[in-house]
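User: For a reading group we're discussing how well predicted structures match intuition. Take Autoinducer 2 import system permease protein LsrD. Before you show the prediction, I'll give you the sequence so everyone sees exactly what went in.
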Amino acid sequence: MPLRHLLRHETILAFVAILLLVLLAFQSSQFFTGANLLNQGRLMTEVGLVAIIMTFVIITGGIDLSVGSILGLTAILTGVFWQNLGLPLVAAAGLAVAVGTFCGFVNGFVITRFGVPPLIATLATLALYRGLAEGISQARSVRGYPDWFYVLGQGNVLGVPTQLWILIAFAILASVLLAATRIGRSIYAIGANEVAAFFSGLPVNRTKIAVYTASGFAAALAGVIFVSRVSTTRSDMGTGLELDAITAVVLGGTSIYGGRGSVIGTLIGLVVIQSLKNGLSLAGVKAEGTAVLIGLMLIGAILITTLLNKRRA
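Assistant: Thanks. Here is the predicted 3D structure of Autoinducer 2 import system permease protein LsrD, as structure tokens, for the group to look at:
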């Protein structure tokens, strides 16, 4: 294998992930079992869906801090539309996802139309959407969903968690879209040099709006899956989700400055984070220790990316 491929961030992270899985397997006999690994796949699906599209967002040079709030708002609206408005649950979930997608569109519109920096715009909508979720819910939860709905978040298809199939399909579609289509090339070009992309005739604003709209859709879909998995809705659902998603994306090698990144890198970063959380928990390590270790790994990933960039330069 050529040296330049061995020194790719994703390749280095893949070796780290394999080493980590081996070490954690020695720490606990329960870690490397089929049941545990499939359960971890179930637990990381919501963050995974959001992180995949967050990769697109960060490659454009942006960021979306509102995804956790969109997830919470979608979860609340699913219950409210079904229980309070009497809509069929499929229609209620579909309408809630549509609202979440529109929230993503609003983010993109504010950023492109008014020139508000993505960090500021999505920080504002983080508070806005979370406030809407809390106001609509009035601190009440919705329970008692029909049994068929739980198949989405708690069921299995061919022995694999239902939502893990959704994550796999989502990842494949996103990978192809990013690597082999015109919009994918536009996303990379915008992140590398937005002004040059504009003068090259690329639809910069439309592409960015599409990316943020897709981010809203991913968060909304994750919200419905989350409700199905935990069997209830609460306004605080998704709190901190944006940080987990961004950590997976950056750990996976996507440049926070834009112009570079991959879906496969994000997925490897996601696996590393989930493996650490689960493996260290089984080994008796407290959550604070896990958080410290993940933080150190993130710093290390940033340093490695910086060194590789200097080497390429």
